[in-house]
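REQUEST ID: PR-0412
SUBMITTED BY: lab tech R.K.
PRIORITY: routine
TASK: structure prediction, single protein chain
INPUT:
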Amino acid sequence: MRLPARFFKRRPESHKGSYGHVLVVAGSRSYVGAACLCAEACLRSGAGLVTLAVPRGIYPVVARKVTEAIFLPLAQTAGGALAARALPHLLAAARQASCLAIGPGLSADRQTQRLVRRLVARVAKPMVIDADGLNALAAKKEVLKGLKAKRQALIMTPHPGELARLTGRPVAAIQKARKKVAKEFAVYYNVHLVLKGFQTVVASPDGRVTINRSGNPGMATAGSGDVLTGVIAGLLAQGMEPHEAASCAAYYHGRAGDLAARQKTQPGMIASDILAWLPQAFKSKK
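STATUS: complete
OUTPUT:
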């Protein structure tokens, strides 16, 4: 799915607040890059403002890397992940945001996972949940079930292994029926599901399914999913309908990967190459 013409037409009198504010909740001592890639992808996708909430210990590193973001350094656990006591600060930040992106590099720390579940349950803003954010929900599925009645835009971006943990189905069974499994999950839980992998599937609660055909095997590299999460959140923050945001993000993320592969080769490509090629992907006609 291609970006609508309105994406490229910005009003002369507009300002950074006109294009949405993403709160990115990401990162831990071992996964600093995930937070940076996600935040930068939000910005490269047109979001006017990005607040990056990270454990206090990695703040000096991410502040040097992502110069355009606003930073929210928060309390951390002994292992360098976000601590449960960071919740009030995140709730306050969420009130100022258009949408949230939760999960890249958060780690499997038990405190952090409790924090994610409480945050997701209490915030009624549109959000994109990825990686360790998904694992936090898989560990306590009653939280996910509790979200069914809510009507906020909730986009989940699992790879097959993460969806296996969310559904209890074997990865092989998911891969044999990707479209069917994704659609059933989206309808049952009232979420928008982006099942990553070869020909990414975007399924929505109303039964719509889009199959993405851009991208290449060189994108099977660490950090690629963090970039996709950021692109989705960046488009969502600008007011795109969730299925459209997820489908467009999947296409242009893949298109950027195709452009990067021409220059870097598939084996030589890394996630930051996908990020660097996003603007050219948005311009491309194919």
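NOTES: The longest helix spans residues 242-264.
REVIEWED BY: pending
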